[in-house]
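Hi P.,

Sorry for the delay on this. The queue was packed all week, but I finally got your sequence through. Input first:
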Amino acid sequence: MAALLRRGWRGAVVHFRGCGGLENRLPRAYHSGDDHEIDWILKRMHTLAGSATLHAVGISLGGNALAKWAGRRGDDASRWVDSAAVISAPQDLAAGAEALANGFARLYAESFLRTLRVKAQKLAKQHPGLIDGSKAGNARSFVEFDDAVTAPLHGFRDAHDYYARSSCKQWLSGVTLPLLVINARNDPFLPAFALAHQTQVSSTVTLEYPADGGHVGFPGRANDAAGLGDTLSWLPHRVLNFLDGHG
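Then the structure:
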């Protein structure tokens, strides 16, 4: 956002339900494949933007949902945004869930799951019978949590059905607007073998897979060559240059 403001652009940071400091009172949450929520958000932003050029950037889970939205909508997506970028999106949710259950990534998974379990148990009390609060509270992996909460809450058969239907990789061939996809090959949340290949995406999708960068980090990547002053500038510089060239 700081880099965006330095260019004189307007911007907004959008939070999923229950993540922006306001309590979610509805019998639903958010999930990686929630392209319907993305559709509502972008159409509202389009109205607020008026005649201005509109770009969208999705980060991690939001990146997967944004990429899925662009692929499912095809040509219609260009009615609402001029271009988009997704960063560290878990393109293959099943592979990502497996990665998060092993090694160093387990530390992140447990930290994230602690917050999700609290939200799920509160939701179970607000809407009795909607989900199994006990099962949600005892979830020790994303597969267990998605089985207990995400799937029943959003109409999926189970966690694996959710992953299969929501992973954005299968939708990238349907994208028609300019879309930049950035994933580091050493992202602990998605193994490199699970990333989409150029043959699996449309001609308007630019795949950029640097060897390092972690998950939404990219510290120090090629900053000297780009003439940037600090170690975290590469990502906003790359994303905004892409969007600027497609607006």
